[in-house]
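Handout, section B. The chain below has 358 residues.
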Amino acid sequence: MNIAISRITEDPIVDMYGADLEGAELGGALMQRANLSAANLQGVKADGARMNGANLRGSILADADLSKTELYDAKVSIGTTKLDFDLQRSLRDHAMWVDTSGELGSRAVLTGMDLSSADLEGVYLSGADLSNCNLEGARLNRSGLILADLTGAELKGANMMNADLKGARLADVNMEPLEIKGRGGEGTGQFKRTDLSNANLPKSMLNDANLNKAVFSGVNFRKATFVRANPFEADLSDCNLEKADFTEATLDSANLDRANLEKTLFRNASLRYANLANTDTTACILTGAETAGTVLQYVAKRAMPQRQAPGPVDDIGGDSVVSGVEGHVSDLEEARMEDINLADALEVGEEFEIGYAR
């Protein structure tokens, strides 16, 4: 097909959803806010075209030349131009499947596919099956992965910043740091951490996941499950972990500074040397948790009934605080801390009282 479009008016908005524009000449076309979702744009030439604010979600971009196209604020995954054509077609069909609630297209089932180092920034894979995929070092920032199945996926060194993973399944994923290789494939001793900063993962499932040293700063994990997960030395600062479940998880040396831990469940979890400074731990459950060396900066448990503390904190007096580092007060109001091990976590301070939960 050889189509030449020299000028398309801006008003009304051009709707070319699912259109076949293979090989089209779009040089200088005015297509601001145009709907080109799921369109076939294979081999198009769009020098000087204005597609600011356009929707190219799920479109096929194989061999397309968009290097001189204005795409400010457009919904587009430029990196897909380098993907295999059959894979691009699967992404297009998946976009149609989602947009039409299954009436058109088909779900993307990419189980076990090798997508390591792939540029999938802004890709639209909500509801897709990515189980056991190799996504080491892949770029998935700003991607749509709502309800996607990533069970068992390799995500070492992946960039998933600002991705939307509401309700996604991430059980058994591996998010360990990825060693950067030299030109000859040799190890360099330098590592790239998996980064999901500011991503959206409420109600996501990360049970048994290896989250060692992963970066989750600012992530919304409300009601997410981390049962038996391993976020060892992970960065969970500024996260919303309200009602999240960390039962039997290993959070040793993790950074939870300023996290929202309201009603978070840490039953039988390990929080050794974790940083919980400045957190809101209202009504969180720490029953059976191991917290030796944990930083609970200036814990104030005012108006809490005193009772004998278990184990190593039997001799702590009324003027004791947790940590003693200067900063904001952590709120452990109503937190349940039965049978926890606070060995080495307490230091003497002034003007603050520690009590024990009901």
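Note. Strands lie at 178-181, 187-192, 299-300, 320-322, 330-331, 346-348. Compare this with the example in section A.
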